[in-house]
Amino acid sequence: MTETSSHESILIVEDNPDDAELAVIALHQKGINMPYLIARDGEEALDIALKRKPLPDQKPTELGLILLDLKLPGKNGIEVLKELRASPNTRYVPVVVLTTSMLEEDMIQSYENGANSFVRKPVDFATFLHYIELICHYWLRTNLRPASSISQR
Amino acid sequence: MLTTLFQNITILISISVLYHFISRSFKGTPWAVSVLNGVLLGATAILAMLTPFEIEKGLFYDARSVVIGIAAFFGGPLTGAIAAAIALAYRILRGGVGVVPGSLSIVFPAILSIIAWQARQRYLANPQGRKPHMVLGTWFLGFLIHASVVLAQLALPGGRWHQVIPLMLFPFLAVFPLVFSLICLLFFDNERIAKAALDLAESEERYRSLFENHHTVMLIIDPSTGRIIDANPAAVEFYGWDRATLTSMRIQDINTLGPEEVEAEMARARTRDKNVFYFKHRCANADPIDVEVYSGPITIKGKELLYSIVHDNSQRIRAERELQALTQSLEQQVQERTRSIEEQTCRLQELNKEYEAFAYSVSHDLRAPLRAISGFSAILGESLQELGILKPSTDQQSASAEANTLQAPDLAHILHRIQSNVSRMQQLIDDMLMLSRAGTRKMNSQPIDFTQMAREILGELTEQQKGRHFECTVQDGMTAIADPDLARILLVNLISNAVKFTKDRDIAHIEVGAEQNSDAPRFFVRDNGVGFDVAAAGERLFAPFQRFHSEASFEGTGIGLSIVKRVVARHNGKISAESAPGQGATFYFDFGKAK
Q1: Residue B584 belongs to domain with CATH number
Q2: Cβ of B371 and A102 within 8 Å?
Q3: Does A18 touch chain B if contact means CB atoms closer than 8 Å?
Q4: Which of B364, B368, B378 sits opposite A126 (nearest CB)?
Q5: B279: which strand partners?
Q6: How distant, in Å, are the alpha carbons of B93, B383, B561, B590 from that of B539?
Q7: Do B406 and B494 reside in the same domain of the chain?
Q8: A125 vs B374: CB contact, 8 Å cut-off?
Q9: How many CB pairs lie under 8 A apart between chains A and B?
Q10: Chain A nearest C-alpha distance from B511 (Å)
Q11: Is A103 an 8 Å CB contact of chain B?
């Protein structure tokens, strides 16, 4: 996956540091060497995605994929999703909801509010690795956006 | 002759007044009345004889027969005898040629009238048959009496009757019977008046005694002033004032209402607008008593008064109040009970929500650390491999004897144990979540194809068991009315148990079927697995976290049958098990009555 466009990065929205780290490790193990950003809550995620605040240590980058947890402190995942879809800058960024929730209602709400995928976090790490590989393969390579939407910036 | 006749009549009329005066005055002693009347009428007979119409010297005729007849007919034998005796004595003393017929003229009427008196008494005692005609009857008696007097003249000495009887025919057979009848009518009338007065007195006495001796409190009130005109002894006892005091009081002194209100109520009683009243009446030495008063107008001696019958109503009112209080307290209790049930229901619903939230947290929050443990231990294993400390071999080659990597096989084993515990923990969480869902999720009962469902689940579960040999039978055409999701959960648990506990069998037999009960099918899942001791398991069989086989031989969380039991309970069904160690197991269940 080295050919993935270098100017794009992955945003991981995850309040649990363990889960965030595991996600990063999984990305690394599956050879996805894109830059990544971690947001600890909904507000921070929106700050980054909507470029509301300049990032201190990194140049602003385009988001190629957002991995979104639903259960977040403060603004929850669904609310974040709504705002992402409401903004022209992030309307077409693939959002994969990655959650522990077992509730069917959460899945329905996610899709209703424009999530591209809804994935339950598996406990088994090997399975998780497999999922991450599939997700990235699809949303970063197979299902690339048409050029017009990129030029929108 | 006519003059004397009228004189005699006048005497008789005036005597009738005296006769009845005596009768009234001495009514307590009947014999005295008889004697006095006998004397009186005897004297009257003499008086009659003193005003005779003499035919010739010593031969005179008079109205003695009428007097004696009246005396005996109305006065009875005693009066008649006395009067006759007096008249007879006088006649004999007077002597003359007519002494024998004159005496007979007294004796015959007396005897005839006494007989008539007896006949009349018999009739009055037992008034049956035709009522005798008053005028005709008395005239006939008068005629008989005077016919006997005429016949008595045959006793005149010297055959004088030839001269006398023709002279007597007119006065004795025409006039005297009529006079007798007339006087009888007068006596009857007087008798009737006397009887009416007696009846009136008796009736007054009856009503008086009704008022005086009745145990009901009665008052007679003058409605214009409210003054108590009369009060009976029961009233005296009830109010505690003596009669004199009571009759000097006004009803306004007794009634606790204001005087104007009492007057208004009296007016209503007088006009019969209302006849039952509920008042409080004061008493001499007690608190006012609740009374029920029946009141209405009564005319006594031309004056319009009010009678009041007073009932002590206090006990009834007390009973009513107690009943009312009881009813109220009962209602209150019911309300309180209802409220407490509502509160409990509310609390239960809250608890249910809390429980669901808890189950959600369990599924979410317990999974996160588990994921971290699983993930980091996996990464640790990989890192150890990269560092060469751990061999990349997959499974337990536990007893590796390589000296300088002594810890390596142990590390692999440890990592493996961590992973298997993570899976077990995950399974536990999943099962607990399922158990809580089975108890709380909303029911949506509908007809389901039970055969189809069982086949699908059997297919899925046996397919995962590579290298095992199953022989499964599912009865055709089974249907049930149940919540499809819960029914699936139930079947998954029972069938996966069947799959699990038959793992040592060369051929695992699993059968799903149904027996038609009276109103709902009773399903069963049967296997030929290791079985268990039903009696020893008892109630614990369906309790969560109960295991009947070691973890090493059969993995599992011990929640499966609790879930099954809960699903059945949600459908108001029943579940039971039949098994013996080594004999396989059969679980029977139903989904309650089909609706």
Answers
A1: 3.30.565.10
A2: no
A3: yes
A4: B378
A5: B291
A6: 135, 49, 12, 18
A7: no
A8: yes
A9: 55
A10: 32
A11: yes
pLDDT at B435 over 50: yes
Q: Which residue has the tokens 């079927």?
A: B513
Whether A100 sits inside 8 A of B363 (CB atoms) is yes
The pTM for the full model equals 0.47
Rounded to whole angstroms, the Cα distance separating B592 from B442 reads 17
Task: Spell out the domain ranges in chain A.
Answer: 8-143
**Nearest CB neighbour to B368, from listed A19, A25, A124:** A19
On whether both B201 and B220 belong to a single domain, the answer is no
- Is residue A128 within 8 angstroms of chain B, CB to CB? yes
What class, spelled out in words, does domain A8-143 have in CATH? alpha beta
CA-CA distance, B274 to B277, in Å (whole number)? 8
Q: E strands of B265-407, at which residues?
A: 276-281, 289-300, 303-312
B371 to A19: CB separation less than 8 angstroms, yes or no? yes
Q: Which helix (H) or strand (E) holds B321?
A: helix B314-365
Domain boundary among B405, B431, B457: B431
pLDDT tens digits for range B88-115:
999 888 877 778 888 888 999 999 999 9
Best CA proximity match to B142, nearest among B41, B67, B87? B67
Residue B373 and residue B420: Cα distance in Å, rounded? 11
pLDDT by residue (tens digit) across A66-124? 999 998 888 889 999 999 999 988 888 999 999 887 778 889 999 999 999 999 888 88
Pair (B403, B450) in one structural domain: no
Q: Name the residue of chain B whose CA is nearest to A24's CA.
A: B375
Residue A78 confidence (pLDDT): 93
What is the C-alpha to C-alpha distance for residues B139 and B179, in angstroms, rounded to an integer? Answer: 8
Q: Please give the residue that has the higher pLDDT: either A75 or B161.
A: A75
Range of the domain at B497: 444-589
- Using the beta-carbon criterion (under 8 Å), do A125 and B433 form an inter-chain contact? no
The mean pLDDT value for B163-172 works out to 80
